[in-house]
Amino acid sequence: MIKLKSHWSTIIAAIMMSMALLVMSGCSGGKQSSNPAPNNAPLTGKHLMVFAGAASQPPLELAAKAFEQKTGVKVDTVFGGSGYVLSQMKLGKKGDLYFPGSSDFMETAKRDGVVYPETEQKIVYLVNSINVQKGNPKNIQTLKDLTRPGIRVAIANPEGVCVGLYAVEIIEKTFTPEEKQAFRDNIANYTESCEKTATAVSLKTVDAVIGWSVFQYWDPEKIETIKLKQSETLRIGYIPIAISKYTENRELAQQFIDFLQSEEGKAAFKKYQYFMTPAEAVAYIGEDRPVGGEYTLPKEWLKK
Q1: Mean pLDDT across the chain, nearest whole number?
Q2: Which SS3 state, helix, strand or coil, does residue 177 take?
Q3: What pLDDT score does 304 carry?
Q4: What is the model's pTM?
């Protein structure tokens, strides 16, 4: 009887050990984690260089940091006007990814053979607005208020900055010739990037800019957004990304694009109220609008 009890005890112990091993295997999925810690990640020590329009600067800085913490890959970012950073890429023949602030400059990059067109992905969407100082001390309520005498306005340089190109399109298609001249008389500055356009309001060097609705969330203590009328919002912009033909690690560059499209990557853009879909942008505007496209800058706006 004693031998029988010992025999069954051995069998039960073996079964319990097997179950424990199965549970441990199930928890790990039967394979190693796909998200190893930076210190032991196989990608640690590698790096990516992203040439980006400053329309994505605050969220892209967050996303790049999160990608680095997750994979160990160092992401170097070069921000500026979309056209200007594209020129830097071409002159330096370097960079793994191009991330302009609008479709206009991505089309230029594709025509110039700087990116692999088949790798282009749309990350988020943007809508133009008027941005004023917090509290709106000049009581600017409409686009035509920007033509009032004494109002100091800024737009980004349309030759190299996406939001400047959009601003000129709005001015040209919305204002009468007299209103256009009055607006141009009020221009105090042509800024060099989206970041510098928003900063012009934060620093109170101007009363208003034609910018993006997200500028308010970049600096909510100092910037307020005034929505344009539905008829004044001509296009929904989007921020695309594509792999540069100068990259030496196309697979790693694709991993960063995939990360930006993941829920983890999108969280950085949601924090600053970027639109995740065209439908979200349409809901904000109140009417449907074309998405993306290109605008040809009139000659009279060149060399500003």
Answers
A1: 89
A2: helix
A3: 58
A4: 0.84
Q: Residue 65 has what pLDDT?
A: 97
- DSSP classification of residue 272: T
pLDDT at 198 over 60: yes
Strand-strand pairing, 97-99 and 237-243: antiparallel
Q: How far apart are CA 51 and CA 88, in angstroms?
A: 8
Phi, psi (degrees; rounded to nearest 5) at 22: -65, -40
DSSP string, 79-97: EE-HHHHHHHHHHHT--SE
pLDDT at 26 (0 to 100): 38
Distance (Å, rounded) from C-alpha 29 to C-alpha 96?
A: 33
**pLDDT tens digits, one per residue of 71-104:** 999 999 999 999 999 999 999 999 999 999 999 9
